[in-house]
Specification:
The protein is of the alpha+beta class. The chain has one domain (3-57, 64-79). It has helices at residues 8-17, 71-79, and strands spanning 3-5, 24-37, 40-54, 69-70. The termini are far apart.
Length: 82
């Protein structure tokens, strides 16, 4: 299973609210990196998170959904002067 990578505000929200075993819906792009070690090429595929949604907590009803946070919203809030 590929590893998920998040940066900036998204990474902060995920690290603050998600725990091991939490449900997270992610949307992003795949990125593959390669490196040479001992004359063998190793590849690593990652999901670069562009939007995510935290799953329901056990105390919430199934109809309640957490807001979706996207990188476009993050960029827009960073550009606001206040």
């Amino acid at each position: 299973m590929p590893r998920a990578v998040a940066w900036g505000k998204q990474a902060g929200i995920i690290s603050q609210y998600a725990k091991k075993g939490s449900l997270i819906r992610m949307q992003g792009r795949l990125q593959t990196r390669s490196r040479d070690q001992d004359r063998t090429k190793h590849y690593k595929t990652e999901i670069v998170v562009e939007a995510f949604q935290l799953g329901p907590k056990s105390s919430k009803l199934a109809g309640d959904e957490a807001p979706i946070v996207s990188s476009e919203e993050e960029k827009a809030s960073a550009e606001m002067p206040f």
